Design the sequence.
């Protein structure tokens, strides 16, 4: 494609960069204080540093985007562990388990100065069971004298220990090269691999909103025995459920059912679990307790699904308990607190009475359709042309930036690249997004718009 004032290579590069599919996921696991967060910081570079945690402060951000040797992937950091909630072995095992479940490959970090401990051995057992590719990072090898310590870690039976210093960067490049060798280009839970297979749903929401009640209600007697379905992953944490004449895969339901670790202080685990479920799913059904005020935690969970680029449905549960007054205030709260996601289909349900359960599937299907929408380039540019002439960008410094050309670079979710003759202001970008939605729908899906400006 040629665009006035742009090199063909720039245009093609921009489209390719924006059009990437879902990114593969790398989990970084290990005991506390071995240097996981330091290593993750190094991987993600300056772009979005992991915040220094004060002890006792819950971190809810657990996934980050990273790039090495021109390849992009997601990193799940399990460094935000919480002391005193569980015993150390159980804590490490729980967080490693969640992260490994969602991962396509794992970096297992061991403190080479300390050597392998019993807790490390416990993680090794988990890694063996999971069968995912593992790269062993022997951390805190700050200089050549530490290399011998690293070599001891051959004993773990995970192959070559890669001596690194997360703190100083020594050896991390070689280790990342080894990671890229085992990390697939696209997630194995991949959106391409399961063509025709069951669609994957993550049922998420803060504790007590009614996730397990809803799951029980929709599953009813319709639970499908996983083994009977050819070509499906026999992941015990996922559950096949028949709804509206189709089979759906509800991912990560074990966490909903078992309610493990949901004691005080377990917010971090809940975040990790939610992030893992969202990564594995195509569509997130976010459950909100309509009888209570919409909380910051509800908003964070919604943000996780949006940032991950998943299709989304919002279900307001416990509708049976709402009186007129609460209904009035709920609508006001939705307007003020959830104005950013007005595009998400909404259902008002009751897991207790079964109210509107039949509306769930159509909402999910709408969201998935929006998520997969592709707008032909001709139609898009006809629309953009009309839009720009009817509502030109405001003049700035005597110049009027123009959108010259646009194309949809990818789907799941829809990603657009616009080429412009000058800087396009945030307000105008939002205006374009709004009009794109009015014109083409995109119900139930975030959309990404990146703008390239002619030099
Ligand atoms: P996490 O709990 O596994 O996430 O560990 P952190 O990344 O928070 O690191 C724990 C401590 O080890 C911090 O004080 C780090 O500065 C230190 N540390 C991390 N990596 C290295 C390293 O490569 N060399 C040295 N000497 N110290 C490190
Ligand atoms: P989870 O922590 O999100 O899995 O929530 P649960 O399914 O365990 O539900 C938490 C509490 O809310 C339980 O006491 C449920 O009986 C109750 N609950 C769940 N859904 C509804 C509903 O639709 N209406 C009413 N009245 N209560 C509900």
Sequence:
């Amino acid at each position: 494609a040629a665009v006035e004032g742009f090199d063909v290579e720039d245009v093609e590069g921009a489209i390719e960069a924006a059009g990437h599919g879902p990114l593969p996921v790398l989990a970084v696991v290990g005991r506390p204080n071995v240097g996981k967060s330091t290593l993750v910081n190094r991987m993600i570079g300056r772009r979005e540093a992991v915040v220094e945690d004060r002890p006792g402060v819950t971190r809810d951000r657990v996934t980050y985007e990273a790039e090495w040797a021109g390849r992009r992937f997601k990193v799940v950091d399990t460094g935000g562990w919480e002391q005193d909630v569980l015993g150390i072995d159980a804590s490490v095992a729980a967080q490693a388990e969640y992260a490994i479940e969602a991962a396509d490959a794992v970096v297992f970090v061991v403190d080479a100065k300390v050597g392998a401990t019993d807790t490390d051995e416990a993680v090794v057992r988990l890694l063996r069971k999971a069968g995912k590719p593992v790269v062993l990072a022997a951390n805190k090898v700050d200089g050549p004298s530490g290399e011998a310590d690293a070599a001891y870690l051959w004993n773990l039976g995970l192959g070559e220990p890669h001596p690194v210093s997360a703190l100083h960067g020594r050896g991390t490049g070689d280790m990342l090269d080894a990671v890229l060798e085992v990390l697939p280009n696209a997630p194995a839970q991949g959106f391409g691999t399961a063509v025709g297979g069951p669609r994957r749903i993550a049922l998420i929401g803060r504790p007590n909103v009614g996730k397990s009640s809803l799951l029980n209600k929709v599953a009813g007697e319709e639970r499908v025995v996983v083994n009977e379905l050819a070509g499906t992953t026999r992941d015990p944490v996922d559950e096949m459920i028949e709804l509206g004449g189709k089979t759906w895969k509800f991912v990560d339901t074990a966490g909903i059912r078992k309610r493990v670790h949901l004691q005080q202080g377990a917010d971090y685990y809940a975040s990790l679990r939610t992030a893992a479920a969202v990564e594995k799913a195509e569509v997130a059904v976010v459950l909100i307790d309509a009888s209570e005020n919409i909380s910051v935690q509800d908003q964070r969970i919604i943000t996780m699904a949006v940032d991950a680029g998943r299709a989304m449905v919002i279900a307001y549960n416990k509708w049976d308990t709402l009186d007129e007054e609460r209904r009035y205030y709920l609508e006001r709260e939705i307007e003020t607190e959830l104005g950013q996601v007005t595009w998400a289909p909404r259902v008002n349900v009751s897991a207790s009475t079964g109210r509107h359960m039949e509306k769930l599937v159509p909402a999910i299907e709408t969201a998935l359709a929006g998520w997969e929408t592709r707008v032909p380039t001709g139609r898009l540019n006809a629309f953009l042309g009309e839009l720009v002439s009817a509502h030109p960008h405001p003049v700035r410094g005597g110049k009027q930036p123009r959108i010259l050309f646009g194309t949809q670079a990818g789907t799941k979710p829809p990603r657009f690249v616009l080429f412009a003759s000058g800087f396009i202001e945030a307000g105008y970008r939002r205006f374009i997004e709004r009009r794109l939605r009015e014109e083409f729908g995109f119900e139930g899906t975030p959309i990404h718009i990146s703008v390239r400006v002619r030099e």
User: Anything to note?
Assistant: The chain has a mean pLDDT of 84. The radius of gyration is 24 Å. The longest strand covers residues 403-410.
